[in-house]
Write a structure and sequence with these properties.
alpha/beta, 10 strands, four-stranded parallel β-sheet, 18 helices
Length: about 500
């Protein structure tokens, strides 16, 4: 019947046979193609942060430290170190001892009640403490567990003085009227008055941050007692000039993976001026101008950048002026290299090379333009523009476009500025409560724009509310009377007082 149908109605049999053969060959080819394609499909590219290189050389059977206190000294690359602590803690959902504002009561000696969420000695487990404070061990011990690892970082006092002068030229009265740092070094007593607020930035700043009397007359016995106190309280003192070696020692001390101590330099200042000056064109300048607190900052644009040039004689004068800091630096630089001797110079060189290679690899993946820092106003994402302070410019980074979600999240953590990062962590630890309709006669607690609560009892913090929210910003006064504007998870300090670092 089929033969009759084909021959009579459709065509000859050979045509049907050829068609059926063609269909069979096509089906077999398609089937083989699917099998072949399945065998050649590559797995999705893994994030660079999940590669074996992220762990680094084996550390044996030790367990990572998660109770950590970092004394964040000023102008010592401490913002970069704090970023590492923030990243490590956020990735592992650790609990931070965060300040009520942005510093733990600095420059006043630390008090446990400066910690947000503190409810009494060790009533709450805090894992990491690292924001600016003036060290007070007895009060820190009320907050942090008994097995906490204490460490800090120091810097050559001459280099520190250069950085401090650049950042705090308009803040410290001792710096404000000088022609330059060399002028100050030639006759510091002409400009320095220990009674004036913020002059602690101009003398023995390390000694001050460690909680000691920075105006005390130098003596060997006093310096030795200070060194002994610090040595007893801190298990490791890093040296800013040998940052990579410091990170290797820290990694082994904390038993952390390599990526936890790989970093990009944060809060670095621009070494050379550019055509666009100061903060007037930045998001900080615009916000301050909108709030009416940027007058002094705007006028400062006409001023020249701080003159940091020094002769060798002036450098020696700065060492004498900062004699207590110079003693600390020499003493702990010596113990630092003793640590490296015990660690082994060959192993140190190998691990530093691995760290630097890993940093280059991450910069190539994460950052635009090969990782070159850029001025804040050139950063497209306003949420990662660094806070601008005074006459110098703080540089930041731009993320590489087209990153997958996991890689972008990890890269963003590495470049997120300190102030914005603190706000992110604050919002996670203290989620903003849903709005509750106010009952007649009931006072509703105010909530900051960053998602953190403004305490109703602000007398402990030295901050007071001086205005309501206007345009999404909350006005407060800091300990020194300078106005603060909270908005979009960022702090802007009015009238350029009380610098944050």
């Amino acid at each position: 019947m089929l033969r009759w149908l084909v021959c009579g109605r459709v065509g000859p049999v050979w045509m049907w046979k050829a068609l059926l053969l063609f269909v069979a060959i096509a089906f077999a080819g398609q089937l083989l193609g699917v099998i072949f394609n399945k065998s050649s499909v590559q797995p999705a590219a893994r994030s660079i942060f999940s590669s074996p290189d992220a762990q680094g050389p084996s550390l044996g059977s030790c367990q990572p430290h998660t109770h950590i206190m970092f004394l964040k000294t000023h102008k010592t690359a401490s913002s970069t170190v704090l970023n590492m602590l923030y990243r490590f803690g956020e990735e592992r959902d650790l609990h931070f001892a965060l300040p009520l504002g942005y510093q733990l009561g600095y420059p006043l000696p630390f008090n446990a009640h400066r910690v947000k969420g503190y409810r009494g000695p060790r009533a709450v487990e805090f894992h990491i403490m690292g924001n600016h404070m003036r060290f007070n061990k007895l009060e820190v011990e009320k907050v942090m567990p008994a097995d906490t690892f204490y460490f800090s970082i120091i810097r050559d006092p001459v280099a520190l003085a250069e950085s401090s002068f650049a950042y705090y030229k308009e803040v410290a009265p001792a710096f404000r009227k000088t022609k330059g740092l060399g002028d100050f070094a030639d006759n510091p007593h002409k400009y320095y008055d220990p009674r004036l607020r913020n002059n602690h930035y101009a003398r023995n700043l390390l000694w001050f941050d460690f909680g000691l009397d920075h105006n005390a007359n130098f003596s060997i016995s006093l310096a030795q007692r200070g060194q002994a106190m610090i040595h007893q309280a801190f298990k490791l003192i890093l040296v800013s000039e040998y940052f990579d070696q410091s990170m290797i020692l820290l990694r082994h001390a904390l038993c952390w993976p390599l990526d936890a101590v790989v970093s990009f330099s944060l809060n670095a200042r621009q070494q050379k001026p550019s055509g666009i000056g100061g903060i007037s064109g930045s998001w900080v300048g615009k916000a301050a101008a909108a709030a009416g607190v940027g007058g002094r900052g705007a006028r400062s644009q006409a001023k020249a950048l701080p003159n940091l040039s020094l002769t060798e004689e002036q450098r020696e004068k700065l060492r004498q002026w900062n004699a207590l800091d110079w003693y600390l630096y020499k003493a702990f630089n010596k113990t630092f290299w003793e640590e490296i001797d015990r660690f082994g110079h060959t192993q140190m060189e190998q691990e530093v090379a691995l760290l630097r290679t890993r940093r280059e690899d991450l910069a190539r993946v994460c950052l635009r333009d090969g990782g070159k820092p850029v001025e804040a106003h050139r950063i497209r994402d306003k949420n990662i523009r660094p806070f601008q302070s005074g006459l110098i410019k703080i540089l930041g980074y731009e993320l590489q476009p087209g990153l997958d979600n996991a890689t972008r999240t990890a890269c963003l953590r590495m470049i997120r500025p300190e102030i914005q990062y603190k706000d992110v962590l604050d919002a996670k630890q203290f989620p903003r409560a849903p709005a509750i309709p106010a009952q007649p006669g009931q006072q509703v607690p105010m909530v900051a724009a960053a998602g953190s609560f403004l305490r109703q009892d602000l007398s402990r913090t030295g901050e007071r509310l001086i205005g309501g929210e206007a345009g999404g910003r909350t006005m407060e006064a800091d300990w020194d009377g300078s106005r603060l504007i909270r908005g979009n998870r960022t702090l802007i300090r009015g009238q350029e007082k009380g610098r944050l670092r």
